[in-house]
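Progress against Task 2.4 (sequence-to-structure conversion) is shown through the following example record, which the project officer requested during the mid-term review.
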Amino acid sequence: SNVLTSEFSSAKWRSLTISLQSAGYGIGATGGGLVSMYLIKTYGWQSVFLFGGLLSTAFIFVVLLRLPESLEFLLSQKPKAALAKAQKLTAKLSLPHLETLPPKPQLSRQAPSGFGSLFGEGKTMPTLMIWAAFFLVMFAFYCILSWTPKLLTGAGMTAEQGISVGIWMNIGSMFGAVLIGFLGTRFNIKTVHAVFLLLTALLTLIFAQSLSQLTLAMALAFFLGSFANGSVAGLYAVAPTLYESANRARGVGTAITLGRAGSIVSPMIIGILLDAGWQPVGLFYLNAVVFALAILAVLKIRKLKPV
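Structure tokens generated for the chain above:
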């Protein structure tokens, strides 16, 4: 969906549309949580899985009937009825009418295929940097998102106060994706992303000093959640610009996989550090450093020429 959103967006609005698309995850997760609370209370936990399965099945037909095929795929790969589909799609997008399909590009025999196509011929550095950025940002983001209530409780707050701060962080995260997308329509998205990462790192350090003050922690949690989630949304906006059409889905999908690896490793490492005697303040300092490292990867990407 991220790749298709990128393709069907104009250059001016691409950052905003991709950010809005990624914000849908948080909105859906929040709505799903509210629905799940009602379903579990009324019908039991099994109803959540039944509801989720039925909704997912329904959207199979929505996607098949309403989601258009990639125009670049139709033009380059020429599947069955490609011309008719491309003509219908260009009409919807107000693009020039196609009389015939362009000739299929000839690929060099030496050109790598599959996973290897993400490397070589100027692709190695963009791939490694976007992998690093995804891993680091998702590592720190999910650490903050999943551990903050527990860390605040360990720092002296009550369980209810810790949960309240966590809620404000989630509320702020809904605005972050929209904000970075809006700014991306006016400024270089890579520069905006680097600024978001810097602000997230600074807010993480400041937040670590507010663990004993509930009101201040709530206010900072809102902004920390906003900029942290904006940093995640920024990755989704930047990644498609690094790959050509034939490699875009593979490149973005692989980068997201590295990000998910970071989100899995993060809570495990924090648990190990807590068992080793680390204090909550030190753990927030650690995440600030991780966000700062991600800035280096994004700044390197910023110097690379987009596809």
